[in-house]
C-alpha cells in the first residue's frame, strides 16, 4: 500500500506582504501530478491546511480545487486540523465530503477516529488526531491527565485501542521531541518557550508510521517512521536552504516500511543574496538564477545608498526584504546597551529599526527630526 504524506499547506499565507496564492496553486497542481504518477492508495494531510482560522475566499477556493482534483482521481484523502486552522470550519461539510472519500477531522471530540483501508497484506488502520491542546482534552479526560501537551496526547491515543497485529498509521499535528533531542525549527513556526507544548515520541510507540505536521522542515523524530513531511513551500528566509518534498510511504506486511521523498519545484524560489549593491544588480549576477524569485538582499556597502529598494526591485521585482551588514551597522548594533532587548531601546531606536526594515534604508536627518518631534509630543524620550 502506498500513502502520500504532506502537511502545512498554509493556504492563503502572506510573506512580507506578498500573497503566496499563485505559488500555492502551482505547487498543489504539482502534488496532484505526483499523485497521478505515484497512484497512492490515500493522501494524508497533517494539518495547517489554511494559514489562518478565518481564511480568505481565494484560499477556500484553492483548497476546494485541490481536494476535488484528488477525489476526482479516486484517491481517498485523510486530513486533520492544525494549530492555524479553525477546527469547526474544517468540520463544516465533512459528512458530505466523506461520501466522496475526503475525511477531515477538525475538532477533537474525545476519541481518535479511525478509517480502514486494506490490501493483500490485510487491514491498515488510519487514526486522525487533530491538533490537541490540553484545554481541549481536559473535558474528556480530567485535569490530572491533561496538565501538559504530552499528557493530553497520550490520553487521546489511549482511546484508539490499537490492534497490535494490524498496521496502524497516525496523522497528527504536534511538536514532537525525542527525549532531550528537539527537531529543527525555523522562523515561520511558533513553538512555546521551554518545550511546554512538546510531546515525546514514545507516545507513538504503537504506530507503524506517524505522519506529522507542524514543523516546516522535512525530518524524522526519534525513528524513521515518525516523520514531519514539512511544508511544500518556503514560508520564511530561515527555510531558504531547505529542500521541500512530499513523502511516499510504502507499506508491506506488518513491520515492513519504505519511505521515499519526492522533491517539489516551486514557481519562485525563496533565496538570499549578499554583497555590494553594484555586484548584486550586475547583469551577470542577475542572470545566474531566476530574478523572479523571492529575495532577501543583504547589502554590504559601507557608503549610504540612495533608494536601495528601488534599485534592487528594478532587477528583482519580488524583493521581500533588505538588510545591511557593514562596519557602521555593526557598530550601531554593538554600541547600544539595548541591543537584543526591545524593552531597553528608546522609541527613536525602535522606530529607526522599523523604518529600516520596511524601507530598506536608514532614516534621513529630516525624517529623524520629524519623528523626534512626534515622540516628544507623545511625552516620550527620544534618546
Automatic annotation (TrEMBL):
Instruction: Name a Pfam family for this protein.
Output: Metallophos
InterPro entries for this protein: Calcineurin-like_PHP (IPR004843), DNA_Repair-Maintenance_Comp (IPR050535), Metallo-depent_PP-like (IPR029052), Mre11_N (IPR041796), SbcD (IPR004593), SbcD_C (IPR026843)
Nuclease SbcCD subunit D C-terminal domain span? 266-357
Question: In its keyword annotation, does this UniProt entry include Nuclease?
Answer: yes
Domain annotation Calcineurin-like phosphoesterase: ranges? 1-217
One GO biological-process annotation of the entry reads: DNA replication
What keywords were assigned to this record?
Answer: DNA recombination, DNA replication, Endonuclease, Exonuclease, Hydrolase, Nuclease
- Residue spans crossing the bilayer: none
| Keyword Hydrolase found | yes
A GO molecular-function term, please?
3'-5' exonuclease activity
- Outline what the protein does: SbcCD cleaves DNA hairpin structures. These structures can inhibit DNA replication and are intermediates in certain DNA recombination reactions. The complex acts as a 3'->5' double strand exonuclease that can open hairpins. It also has a 5' single-strand endonuclease activity.
Binding partners and assembly: Heterodimer of SbcC and SbcD.
Q: Would you identify the family this protein belongs to, as annotated?
A: Belongs to the SbcD family.
Name the chain's protein: Nuclease SbcCD subunit D
Q: Which organism is it from?
A: Caproicibacter fermentans
